[in-house]
C-alpha cells in the first residue's frame, strides 16, 4: 500500500540540563490516503514532538533531528529544500490543527484578516512558488472573491453561524469550541492531503469534545483528507479513528485498525492502557512504575521495566516490528496472541 | 546568609554585571583614595593660572583646566562628590519612599489613595524639571542638590514597594499569619520586608545611575556645588568656552560620568535578572 | 463607549492632580526659601525696597490668600509676569512652544523610525554581531549625559568637521509663519533653501535628544519581539507555512508593539524633559532655554510657570497614552 505519509526510524533529541533527552527514538508511523490515524500515548511520550517534526517546526535551538526520514508523497521532507517545503507542503499539502485554540490566533487582528492572509498564500487557487514580498505580494481581486466565497462555505460547513459577520470579529469573541471549528476550517481550506491535529480537543470542555471530533471526521471523510491525530485519551481515538498507533517513551509499540486495537490488543502496554480505563465498578487499575527518563532510557524495549512479561531478551534487544495480521503491527518480543 | 551567596554566585556568571561591578569598584577606589592616587592633590583649591589649559602630558595626565588645576586630580576628588550625592540622595529617597509605600500598600482606605496620589504628582513632572525648580529656589550648594534629588526620587521607591506589598497581601501566607494573630507591624517587618528587598535593591542600583546623571545635569546648569568644588557636571559647563581646542576639558569628566552611570546600570540590570526573573518581563520605560 | 468613559475618568483625575502639583510648586516657591522676596529683590536692595517689592508682588498677604489668588489667575490663563522680560509668562511660553515641539517631534520620529526596526532585527538575529553592537549602544544610551553628548557632537560635527551649524534654530530669515514649525512652514512655502538650513540646525539637537529614546526603544522592541516569538499563534503561522516576513513584520511586530505604544507616549514625556537640557546646550529658542535662563536670573514666576506647564503636559500625555492603549489593544475595547 502506498502510504501518503511514512515516518521511518525518526530520532529526535532535546537539549536538557542533564544532557540530551531522546524524545523520539527510531519511531515508525504510516498514514494512508483518506485514513484517520490516531496516535495515542501518555503525556511526555513524544506525540507532540512527532507532530512538530513532521511539520518541520521543532524549536530550533533546543531540538535536533538525529536521523530518520519523513516520507510524504514519495519525498523525504527532512532532506528537501526548506524553502520549497515551506511554500508547497506546509499550509498546502499538510495543514495543522493546534492544541490550544485560545492562543493560536493573533489577538489583535480580526479573524477575517488572519484567514484571508492564509488564503492569500495557501489557497488552492494560488500559484505555487509566488515570491513572498513581505507585506506586499499581489492578491488579485478575482481570486480574492473566489477565496472569500470558499471561506464562507467552509465556515458554514463547520457550523459557524452567520459567517460573514463572524469574520469581522476578533478571536477572543468566540468560544473555545467555535475557535477550534475555525481552526478546522482553516485546516481544510487549502485542500490538503493530510491534516496533523495535535490533541485538538484537550483544551475544550468535555461536553463539546465529542461534537468537534464528529464534525472533523465527517468533514475529512467527505473530502478524502487523511488525518494524523494525537491524543492521550483512548476514548477519543475510539470515536473517530480508522487506525490507532500507541506510543511509549519515544517509540511506537503497536499499530492496528481500531477494532483490532481495542478488541485484540497484542502489546502488554496496550493491554495495560486499556485495562487502566476505569472499570464499571469505578475501580482504577494503574500501571505500576513510572515513565522512564529520556536522558538515560532503558536499553532494549523501553517498556520492559514495567512489563510483567519482560525477559532478558527484552532488556537488551529492541523488538523489530512484526505483523500479527494484515495491518496489525506490534513491536514486542512476546506479544499476546488472542 | 546563603541567599546573599546565591545572588553573588549567579551574578558572577553575568559578564556585563561583572563589568558594572568593576566600574563601581573603580569609582569607589578613586573616591576613597583620591588624596593618594592624585598627582596634584592640592589643585582642588589652589590655582596656577600660568599653567591653564594645557593638553594632557606626562605632568598632567588629563591636562589642566582654565585655572591651571590638574584635571586628573580634580576628577578623582569629583568622584567623592558623585558618590556622596548618589548615596545620600538614593538613601534618603529610600528612607522616605519605602515607608510610604508600605503604609499605602498595607492599608486600603483614603490614606492609601492619598499617598499614592501625592506620589503620582511627583511622578507627573520629570525629575529633572522638579529638581531644577527646587534647587533654583534653594540656591546652588551640595546639600541643596541632595535635597532636591531626594525629594524627587522617593516616588519610585514608594511605587515599587506599594505594588509589591499589595501583591504580597494576596499571597496566602500573609493572610494566614494574620489569622494566627500576629500584629500588623510585626507582620510587615518579618514577612513583607524580606520579599520586597529584591525590587528595592534593583531600584536602588538603577536609581544611583539616574541620580548621578540628574546631579550632573544640575551641576551643568549651575545649580550644583559652587566652585572650586570639582563637580563633574559643572566642569563640563566650564569647558564649553574653551572648545574645540581644550577638548580634554570636556571629554574627561563626561567619560567619568558615563563609566560611573554605566557601572550602576549594568549592575542594576544584572541584579534584576538574578533576583527576580519575573521582573525581567515587566520592564517599562518609566524604570528610572 | 468605553473610550468615552475612560476619557472622562481620566479628565476628572486631571484636576486633582494638577491642583496637587500647584500646591507643591506653590509651597516650594513661597514657603521653603527664607524670604523669597529678598531673593528676588537681590542682594543690593535696601530693606525699604524689599518691603515695597513685597507689597507690589502681594507677598505680604496670608499664604492661603496668595494661593487662592494664584490658582484663580491660573484658571484664567495668567501665570504672572516674568520678572525679567516683563511680559506675561503665558505669552513667553507660547512664543517658544513651537521650537520645543518641533525638536521633540523630530527626535521622536527619528528614534521610532530607527529604533523599532533595529529592535526587531536584533531579536531575529539574536546574539549576532548586530545584536551585540546594539546591546552596547542601548546600554550606553541610558548612561550618557545628554548635555555631554550634545557637546561632544558639537565638537565633532560642528567644530572639527564643520558639517552642521553649531547652535541655534536658524541662520537668516525664518520662513513664512504658518504653523511656527520651520520645517513645515518652509516646505509649505516651497522655500527649500530655508528648509535645508532648518534641517541642518535640527540635526545635532535632534540626534542628542533621540539617542536615549532610541536606545530604550531598541531594547523594548527587542524584548517584546522575543517574547511574542514564543507565542502559539506564531507557531501556528509557521506550521502553516506563512512567509516569514509576513509573520515577523505584520503579526509579531504588531503584538510586540501593543505594549510599546504605551511607552511611546511616556517616551514623549521623557523627551520633553530631556529637551530642557538639550536646548541649553544648543541655544535652542524653546521652552527649555527659557526655563534655564529663568533659573539663572532667579526669575521665580517664570520657573514656576514652566513647572506648572510641564506638569500639565505630562498629565495630558498620560491621558492620551491611556486612550491610545485602549485603541491599540482591541481586547480592552470590547470586553
Keywords:
heterotrimer, A: alpha/beta, 8-stranded mixed β-sheet, 23% strand, C: 335 residues, mainly alpha, globular
Topology:
The complex is a heterotrimer of chains A (338), B (288) and C (335).
Chain A: E1 5-16, E2 19-31, E3 36-40, H1 47-55, E4 63-72, E5 75-76, H2 82-89, E6 94-97, H3 111-122, H4 141-157, H5 163-167, H6 176-188, E7 194-198, H7 206-223, E8 226-231, H8 234-240, E9 243-248, E10 251-257, H9 258-263, H10 268-276, H11 312-316, E11 322-325, E12 328-330
Parallel strand pairs in A: 3-8, 3-9, 6-7, 7-8
Antiparallel strand pairs in A: 1-2, 1-4, 4-5, 9-10, 10-12, 11-12
Helix pairs in contact in A: 3-4, 4-6, 6-7
Chain B: H1 2-12, H2 15-32, H3 34-37, H4 71-106, H5 110-124, H6 127-138, H7 142-170, H8 172-179, H9 184-220, H10 232-239, H11 247-275, H12 277-281
Helix pairs in contact in B: 2-4, 2-11, 4-5, 4-7, 4-9, 4-11, 5-7, 6-7, 7-9, 9-10, 9-11, 10-11
Chain C: H1 2-31, H2 36-41, H3 47-57, H4 63-75, H5 89-124, H6 129-141, H7 146-160, H8 182-188, H9 192-229, H10 232-239, H11 244-282, H12 287-296, H13 300-328, H14 330-334
Number of strands of chain B: 0
Tell me what portion of residues of chain B adopts beta-strand conformation: under 5%
| Percent of sequence in beta strands of chain A | 15-25%
Average predicted confidence as pLDDT of chain A? 87
Mean pLDDT of chain B: 79
How many β-strand runs of chain A?
A: 12
Class from helix and strand fractions of chain A: alpha/beta
User: What structural category characterises the helix and strand content of chain B?
Assistant: mainly alpha
Shape estimate of chain B:
elongated
Instruction: Return Rg of chain A in Å.
Output: 21 Å
Helical segment count of chain B: 12
Distance between the termini of chain B: 30 Å
Fraction of helical residues of chain B: over 70%
What sequence of helices (H) and strands (E) makes up the elements of chain A? EEEHEEHEHHHHEHEHEEHHHEE
**Uncertain regions spanning at least 5 consecutive residues of chain B:** 279-288
Q: Nearest-angstrom radius of gyration of chain B?
A: 22 Å
For the sheet with most strands of chain A, the description reads: 8 strands, mixed
Helix content of chain A: 25-40%
Amino acid at each position: 500500500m502506498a502510504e501518503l505519509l511514512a515516518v521511518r526510524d525518526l530520532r529526535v533529541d532535546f537539549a536538557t540540563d542533564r544532557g540530551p533527552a531522546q524524545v523520539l527514538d527510531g519511531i515508525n508511523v504510516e498514514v494512508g490516503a483518506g485514513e484517520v490515524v490516531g496516535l495515542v500515548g501518555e503525556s511526555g511520550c513524544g506525540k507532540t514532538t512527532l507532530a512538530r517534526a513532521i511539520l518541520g517546526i521543532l524549536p530550533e535551538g533546543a531540538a535536533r533531528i538525529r536521523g530518520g526520514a519523513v516520507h510524504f508523497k514519495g519525498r523525504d521532507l527532512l532532506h528537501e529544500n526548506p524553502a520549497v517545503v515551506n511554500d508547497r507542503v506546509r499550509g498546502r499539502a499538510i495543514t495543522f490543527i493546534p492544541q490550544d485554540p485560545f492562543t493560536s490566533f493573533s489577538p489583535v487582528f480580526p479573524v477575517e484578516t488572519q484567514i484571508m492572509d492564509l488564503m492569500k498564500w495557501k489557497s488552492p487557487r494560488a500559484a505555487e512558488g509566488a515570491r513572498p514580498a513581505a507585506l506586499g505580494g499581489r492578491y488579485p481581486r478575482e481570486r480574492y472573491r473566489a477565496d472569500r466565497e470558499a471561506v464562507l462555505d467552509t465556515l458554514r460547513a463547520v457550523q459557524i453561524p452567520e459567517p460573514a459577520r463572524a469574520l469581522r470579529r476578533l478571536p477572543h469573541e468566540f468560544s473555545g469550541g467555535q475557535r477550534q471549528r475555525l481552526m478546522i476550517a482553516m485546516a481544510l481550506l487549502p485542500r490538503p492531503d493530510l491534516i496533523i491535529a495535535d490533541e485538538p480537543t484537550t483544551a475544550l470542555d468535555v461536553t463539546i469534545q465529542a461534537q468537534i471530533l464528529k464534525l472533523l471526521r465527517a468533514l475529512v471523510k467527505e473530502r478524502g483528507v487523511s488525518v494524523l491525530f494525537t491524543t492521550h485519551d483512548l476514548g477519543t481515538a475510539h470515536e473517530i479513528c480508522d487506525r490507532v498507533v500507541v506510543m511509549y517513551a519515544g517509540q511506537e509499540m503497536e499499530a492496528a485498525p481500531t477494532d483490532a486495537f481495542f478488541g485484540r490488543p497484542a502489546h502488554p502496554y496496550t493491554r495495560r492502557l486499556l485495562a487502566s480505563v476505569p472499570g464499571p465498578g469505578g475501580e482504577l487499575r494503574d500501571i505500576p512504575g513510572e515513565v522512564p527518563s529520556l536522558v538515560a532510557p532503558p536499553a532494549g524495549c523501553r517498556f520492559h521495566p514495567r512489563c510483567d512479561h519482560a525477559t532478558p531478551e527484552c532488556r537488551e534487544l529492541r523488538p523489530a516490528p512484526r505483523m500479527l495480521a494484515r495491518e496489525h503491527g506490534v513491536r514486542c518480543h512476546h506479544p499476546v496472541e488472542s | 546568609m546563603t541567599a546573599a551567596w546565591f545572588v553573588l554566585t549567579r551574578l558572577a556568571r553575568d559578564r556585563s554585571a561583572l563589568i558594572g561591578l568593576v566600574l563601581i569598584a573603580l569609582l569607589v577606589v578613586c573616591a576613597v583614595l583620591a588624596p593618594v592616587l592624585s598627582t596634584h592633590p592640592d589643585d582642588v583649591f589652589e590655582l596656577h593660572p600660568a599653567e591653564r589649559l594645557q593638553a594632557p602630558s606626562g605632568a598632567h595626565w588629563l591636562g589642566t583646566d582654565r585655572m591651571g588645576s590638574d584635571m586628573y586630580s580634580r576628577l578623582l576628588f569629583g568622584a567623592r562628590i558623585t558618590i556622596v550625592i548618589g548615596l545620600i540622595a538614593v538613601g534618603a529617597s529610600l528612607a522616605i519612599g519605602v515607608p510610604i509605600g508600605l503604609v499605602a500598600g498595607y492599608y486600603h482606605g483614603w490614606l492609601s489613595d492619598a499617598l499614592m496620589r501625592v506620589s503620582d504628582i511627583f511622578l507627573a513632572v520629570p525629575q529633572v524639571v522638579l529638581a531644577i525648580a527646587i534647587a533654583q529656589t534653594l540656591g546652588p550648594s551640595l546639600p541643596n542638590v541632595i535635597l532636591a534629588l531626594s525629594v524627587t526620587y522617593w516616588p519610585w521607591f514608594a511605587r515599587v514597594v506599594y505594588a509589591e506589598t499589595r501583591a504580597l497581601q494576596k499571597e496566602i501566607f500573609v493572610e494566614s499569619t494574620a489569622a494566627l494573630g500576629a500584629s500588623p507591624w510585626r507582620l510587615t517587618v518579618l514577612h513583607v520586608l524580606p520579599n520586597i528587598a529584591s525590587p528595592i535593591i534593583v531600584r536602588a542600583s538603577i536609581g544611583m545611575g539616574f541620580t548621578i546623571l540628574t546631579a550632573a545635569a544640575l551641576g551643568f546648569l549651575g545649580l550644583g556645588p559652587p566652585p572650586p568644588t570639582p563637580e563633574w557636571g559643572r566642569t563640563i559647563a566650564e569647558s564649553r568656552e574653551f572648545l574645540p581646542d581644550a577638548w580634554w576639558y570636556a571629554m574627561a569628566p563626561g567619560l567619568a560620568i558615563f563609566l560611573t552611570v554605566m557601572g550602576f546600570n549594568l549592575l542594576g540590570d544584572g541584579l534584576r535578572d538574578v533576583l527576580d526573573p519575573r521582573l525581567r518581563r515587566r520592564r517599562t520605560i518609566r524604570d528610572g | 463607549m468605553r473610550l468615552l468613559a475612560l476619557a472622562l475618568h481620566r479628565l476628572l483625575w486631571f484636576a486633582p492632580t494638577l491642583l496637587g502639583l500647584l500646591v507643591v510648586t506653590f509651597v516650594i516657591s513661597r514657603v521653603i526659601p527664607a524670604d523669597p522676596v529678598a531673593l528676588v529683590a537681590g542682594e543690593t536692595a535696601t530693606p525699604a525696597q524689599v518691603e515695597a517689592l513685597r507689597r507690589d508682588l502681594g507677598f505680604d498677604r496670608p499664604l492661603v490668600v496668595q494661593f487662592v489668588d494664584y490658582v484663580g489667575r491660573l484658571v484664567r490663563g495668567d501665570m504672572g509676569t516674568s520678572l525679567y522680560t516683563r511680559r506675561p509668562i503665558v505669552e513667553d511660553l507660547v512664543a517658544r512652544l513651537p521650537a520645543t515641539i518641533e525638536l521633540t517631534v523630530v527626535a521622536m520620529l527619528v528614534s521610532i523610525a530607527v529604533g523599532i526596526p533595529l529592535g526587531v532585527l536584533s531579536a531575529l538575529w539574536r546574539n549576532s554581531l548586530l545584536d551585540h553592537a546594539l546591546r552596547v549602544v542601548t546600554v550606553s544610551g541610558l548612561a550618557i549625559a545628554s548635555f555631554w553628548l550634545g557637546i561632544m557632537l558639537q565638537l565633532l560635527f560642528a567644530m572639527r568637521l564643520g558639517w552642521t551649524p553649531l547652535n541655534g534654530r536658524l541662520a537668516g530669515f525664518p520662513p513664512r509663519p504658518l504653523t511656527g514649525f520651520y520645517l513645515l512652514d518652509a516646505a509649505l512655502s516651497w522655500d527649500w533653501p530655508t528648509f535645508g538650513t532648518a534641517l541642518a540646525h535640527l540635526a545635532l539637537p535632534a540626534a542628542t535628544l533621540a539617542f536615549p529614546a532610541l536606545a530604550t526603544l531598541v531594547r523594548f522592541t527587542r524584548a517584546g519581539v522575543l517574547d511574542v516569538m514564543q507565542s502559539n499563534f506564531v507557531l501556528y503561522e509557521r506550521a502553516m507555512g506563512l512567509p516569514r516576513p509576513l509573520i515577523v513584520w505584520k503579526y509579531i511586530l504588531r503584538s510586540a508593539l501593543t505594549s510599546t505604544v504605551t511607552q511611546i507616549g511616556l517616551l514623549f514625556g521623557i523627551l520633553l524633559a530631556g529637551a530642557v537640557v538639550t536646548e541649553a546646550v544648543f541655544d535652542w529658542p524653546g521652552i527649555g532655554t527659557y526655563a534655564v535662563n529663568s533659573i539663572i536670573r532667579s526669575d521665580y514666576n517664570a520657573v514656576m510657570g514652566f513647572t506648572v506647564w510641564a506638569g500639565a503636559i505630562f498629565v495630558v500625555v498620560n491621558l492620551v497614552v491611556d486612550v491610545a492603549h485602549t485603541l491599540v489593544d482591541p481586547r480592552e475595547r470590547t470586553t
